[in-house]
Amino acid sequence: GFSRQMVEILSRHGVAFSSFDVFSDEEVRQGLKAFSSWPTYPQLYVAGELVGGLDIVKELEASGELDTICPKAQKLEDRLKSLINKAPVMLFMKGSKQVAKCGFSKQIIEIMNDTGVDYETFDILEDEEVRQGLKSFSNWPTYPQLYVKGELVGGLDIVKELKESGELLPVLKGEN
């Protein structure tokens, strides 16, 4: 119950955190008590320093200090914008440049590689939040999705059309 309450407080405040199940490793469970000089769980650490247990976190929440000492989780929209702009040409696909994991991704990789333009990929199969969130964010329901300088170009069909019309290279170079 105490751990659940801690997670609820941290989540409510949008805190970026990870957790470790002390029941999964008795050596860690006992060792951390000695290391921290704190006999109970849960224990909250920020930047490697013990903040305290649930009672301390509740006090910090009540005083408003919790929001100042804990790192915030990046909002999905900000994360998507960051990923879209990670490289001048970004391709969101199933798999990677090296191993496409669907036919559409394989086709777009072949087209992209033929252009000689440098690009980065993001495997949407590795991150369900990005996979679903990007569909809404871009208002484009399918993958792959190609972005140039942070702007959606489109999916495989659009890329094929641009290639056939001779416009793909200028688009990838940000000339259109």
Description:
- The longest helix has 13 residues, at 103-115.
- This protein folds into 2 domains: 2-69, 3-Layer(aba) Sandwich (Glutaredoxin); 76-173, Glutaredoxin (3-Layer(aba) Sandwich), CATH 3.40.30.10.
- A hairpin with a 2-residue loop joins strand 5 and strand 6.
- The protein is elongated, with a radius of gyration of 23 Å.
- Helix 5 crosses helix 7 (128-138).
- The model has no long low-confidence stretch (mean pLDDT 93).
- The strands form 2 sheets. A 4-stranded mixed beta sheet has the order 4-3-5-6.
- It has helices at 2-12, 26-36, 54-63, 66-69, 76-84, 103-115, 128-138, 156-165, 168-172; strands spanning 44-46, 49-52, 89-93, 120-123, 145-148, 151-154.
- It starts with a helix and ends with a helix.
- The chain has 9 helices and 6 strands, in the order H-H-E-E-H-H-H-E-H-E-H-E-E-H-H.
- Helices cover 48% and strands 14% of the residues.
- The chain is an alpha+beta fold and 176 residues long.
- 22% of the residues are buried.
- One of its GO terms (molecular function) is iron-sulfur cluster binding.
- Keywords: Iron, Iron-sulfur, Metal-binding.
- This is GLRX3 protein.
- One of its GO terms (cellular component) is nucleus.
- It comes from Struthidea cinerea.
